Amino acid sequence: MSVSIGIKNVVKRYGNMTIIPDLSLEIKNGEFFTLLGPSGCGKTTLLRMIAGFNSIEDGEIDFDGKVINNIPANKRNIGMVFQNYAIFPHLTVRQNVEYGLKLRKLSKAGIKSKVDEILKLVRIEDYQNRLPERLSGGQQQRVALARAIVIHPSVLLMDEPLSNLDAKLRVEMREVIKDVQRKVGITTVYVTHDQEEALAVSDRIAVMKLGVIQHVGLPQEIYMRPANGFVSTFIGHSNLFNCTIDGTTLKFADGYSIEMKNLTETSHNGIAAVRPEEFVPSENGEGMQAKIVSRTFLGKYVQYKLEFKEGMVMPDQPSIEYSQDLGGVIHLYNTGDAIFLKPNPLKINVFTNDLEKSLIRGIDAGVAG
Ligand SMILES: Nc1ncnc2c1ncn2[C@@H]1O[C@H](COP(=O)(O)OP(=O)(O)O)[C@@H](O)[C@H]1O
Ligand SMILES: [Mg+2]
Prior knowledge:
The protein is of the alpha+beta class.
């Protein structure tokens, strides 16, 4: 039932504005695939092209190899879930879920058993006779999800489905969505600008910027070995340091240096990206000296904002951060303390000065031609 999606060199223009210049992706059958990027980068535009609500100016989109460019939206067999639930206010939960099946002229018994199954799967059977106005946001979104999948669509498209929910409910609902998707096994394209949500739900993620895919990969690949500086700072926090590569040595501006075995260059200027949790504090004055500017106690860890010596870090970063894991720690630092930190050479990423390219060996941005 479910299909693979091929997107080949597609172009989207509005008037003389090019929103998507040339985008290619292969989404596997049954995969939970997420388009992640800042607001305005073209995620909804691309999703609407897959759905058939947007024209495609050039290139091709196929389902299981069959080009769908000219197939109208209502013939593409797609289930959709949006941010604003879009369920019928005058129909009960059950009637909302039944709606798509009734249009398809199934037998009464067939409709009943399908609806029963889905109501149970998304856990809304207990309030199946209620009107939507008597449901919470999370419950309404469950109804929208049930209604989208009850028709057994070839593809499920979701555009920021959790954006209207509060933080706690967002976490709960992303588990519901992931769980239901896994059980139904349907190819899903999910759009979000929330990187944590993307990491939590996706089989694979495509990070987009200005209509261009920056990196496609597993959540852990994108987090640990980002293809460029944009991905490294958009997904989680990265502290960016000026550095030089000399042979297999990575040197920071204060002279501190570490050995790296995975650099693609032996003589280069660059930017080293160190995540807040990748610093190891040292007691013997080895490492890079920093001053604690502020401390935020967060329970599992303590987040410190840091200041390094002149010239150490790339200018104009929102903050330089160190997270101290409280698992094995007894001593907290205070504002004003001078500390020495060693970045973990196994975790560190190095980029060209313009942040466009990683200088770590073996990184594949996964961007199809
Ligand atoms: N119907 C439209 N006409 C003109 N420009 C549009 C239209 N829809 C979207 N855009 C523009 O396309 C870009 C991408 O928008 P969108 O796909 O909604 O981004 P995202 O979903 O990533 O926030 C934005 O610059 C937006 O202003
Ligand atoms: Mg959008």
